[in-house]
Specification:
7 strands; 7-stranded parallel beta sheet; Rossmann fold; alpha/beta; 40% helix; 192 residues
Length: 192
């Protein structure tokens, strides 16, 4: 089986480096071109908006998941036909998890960090074994990964924590990896 859908966690802001926006556009178009459904946070701003717009322009399938209280703040994307509105942030992450075969972590801020840490923790707890790819666009993820390495060095995480995710240097490598990784489809668990 091949990857049919990928959740993209990324910023509701565009960041300071234009490379971030370009990478989001390449990712959206690339997922559409590969026939992989984009699952994302449902917003029309920042990198979230850029990845969704590019996927839609390329004729791709897009599922947006946004909590009701963020509808206005993140400017819910009117062009996404498959849009779910949730009650809470946790429900948003749970629905994105259930809708995706893999996870791509793009540049972002605190919300992106939260989404990454939760999906990593769920994998560490054996609640899933879906691939997690951190896309290190223009080096943005170096310090994030270094933080995980420090937790390992200081004895707060096992060395095996590095096996929970893969760091790739760019969107093109991420798309190639999605073609190569095995698909793990499991029943949703009530433990989440």
């Amino acid at each position: 089986m091949t990857i049919a859908s990928a959740a993209v966690f990324c910023g509701s802001r565009s960041g300071n480096d234009p490379a971030y926006g370009r990478a989001a556009e390449v990712l959206g178009a690339g997922l559409a071109g590969a026939g992989i459904r984009l699952v994302y946070g449902g917003g029309n701003v920042g990198l979230m908006g850029a990845v969704a717009d590019a996927a839609l322009r390329a004729g791709g399938a897009v599922t947006g998941v946004i909590p009701g209280f963020l509808r206005d703040r993140e400017v819910m994307h009117d062009g996404v036909m498959d849009l779910m509105v949730t009650e809470t942030m946790h429900e948003r992450k749970t629905r994105m998890f259930a809708s995706a075969d893999a996870f791509l972590i793009m540049p972002g801020g605190l919300g992106t960090f939260d989404e990454l840490m939760e999906i990593l923790t769920w994998r560490q707890l054996s609640l899933h074994d879906k691939p997690i790819l951190i896309v290190d666009v223009a080096g943005w993820a170096r310090m994030l990964v270094a933080t995980i390495d420090v937790a390992i060095e200081q004895g707060f995480a096992a060395a095996s924590a590095r096996d929970l995710f893969e760091v790739v240097p760019d969107v093109e490598t991420a798309l190639a990896r999605l073609e190569a990784v095995p698909v793990v489809r499991e029943a949703e668990t009530a433990r989440m």
